[in-house]
TrEMBL record:
<feature type="domain" description="ArsA/GET3 Anion-transporting ATPase-like">
    <location>
        <begin position="8"/>
        <end position="130"/>
    </location>
</feature>
<dbReference type="GO" id="GO:0071816">
    <property type="term" value="P:tail-anchored membrane protein insertion into ER membrane"/>
</dbReference>
<dbReference type="InterPro" id="IPR025723">
    <property type="entry name" value="ArsA/GET3_ATPase-like"/>
</dbReference>
<dbReference type="GO" id="GO:0016887">
    <property type="term" value="F:ATP hydrolysis activity"/>
</dbReference>
<dbReference type="InterPro" id="IPR016300">
    <property type="entry name" value="ATPase_ArsA/GET3"/>
</dbReference>
<dbReference type="GO" id="GO:0005524">
    <property type="term" value="F:ATP binding"/>
</dbReference>
<dbReference type="Pfam" id="PF02374">
    <property type="entry name" value="ArsA_ATPase"/>
</dbReference>
<protein>
    <submittedName>
        <fullName>Anion-transporting ATPase-like domain-containing protein</fullName>
    </submittedName>
</protein>
<dbReference type="InterPro" id="IPR027417">
    <property type="entry name" value="P-loop_NTPase"/>
</dbReference>
<dbReference type="GO" id="GO:0043529">
    <property type="term" value="C:GET complex"/>
</dbReference>
Amino acid sequence: QILRNPPPGIDELVALAGVLRLARSKEYEFDRIVIDTAPTGHTLRLLSFPDFLDQFLDKVIKLRERLDGVLGVVAGLFGKRDNLVQQADVAVQTLIKYREEIIALRDLFADADATEFCVVTIPTQLAIAE
């Protein structure tokens, strides 16, 4: 259910994680990757989103672990224990994979030797003030 209704901004983050996978791929070799971001407010939210998502996924994974026994009992009452537990396990593994990619992306953003952020704006007072 969580994967069906992702939080706002996750699509940009998943796209950035895809860029990271390409950048680290042995199949390609890049000297530079340039990412044109959205206006300031959106970019700042995007840059802070890996930390938020890491904490969120950590809570979801811990909740799943705590509910493991209850989930098995409830699913067993309806004769769907194995199927429900398996679906929950697949969802958790998917979340763990996303979490690892998000952590790698956060670490890349924080690495001054690997990442440079250049501000580009239009020459108006409002844009500069933003």
